[in-house]
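Recall from the previous lesson that a structure prediction takes nothing but the amino acid sequence as input. Here we apply that procedure to Acyl CoA:acetate/3-ketoacid CoA transferase beta subunit from Streptomyces eurocidicus. The sequence below is the only information supplied.
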Amino acid sequence: MSATRAEVCAVACAEAWRGDGEILASPMGVLPTVGARLARLTFSPELLLTDGEALLIADTPALGAKAAVVEGWLPFRRHLAMVAGGRRHVMMGASQLDRYGNQNISRIGGAERPARQLLGVRGAPGNSVNHPTSYWIPRHSPRVLVERVDMVCGVGHDRAAAAGPSVTRFHRVPRVVTDLAVLDFETPDRTMRVRSLHPGVTAEELRAATGFPLDVPAGVPRTRTPTDGELRLIRDVIDPAGLREREVRA
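The prediction returns the following tokens.
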């Protein structure tokens, strides 16, 4: 079976949780949610998932469906305790993201007179310094992948290092998944690198869509495509309504 770009992105999101063990997965958005549920149904069965409110669920329902089996209660105070102890891995969005992994979801433009008001800082600082934080970007463009974010919400590697051990203890940005590529920060200076290009994406296309110089090594691999079994899970079990295709351009 051939996979769509959205389905390749779903598997790339799922891979962010590979090897995490018994940790709370907090996906934000359609593709991260498909990815987290796919990971739990395949290579990361110990992942903890919630119903989006205060219940830990034992089954893995389709998007929009109610869980049939509840295995625990996770009120806000207990959720915060998990967050503070590094036992959560969230995949957030980003209105802007720079080469060090600093994220902005608050405003576009200067503080005195911003051009756009966005979500606000929300829980991004606490997320990014207390547990692993990955990012999902459905439209890879120079407006999102920027040289410098207009406001720091999620903390990147340079700012975490400057703040010292109290911040770096749990700080980790394992993965950035976009509609063009998978990126990480596994470089000596902890700047963004290309981990893989999605099938059909060229190095020139990726560079043109990035607002800062991005090295694309000649031998960079392709993002893996879903197996037939994974495609059946995505299409028939997790997202039978095809919501994933609305989030990623064909």
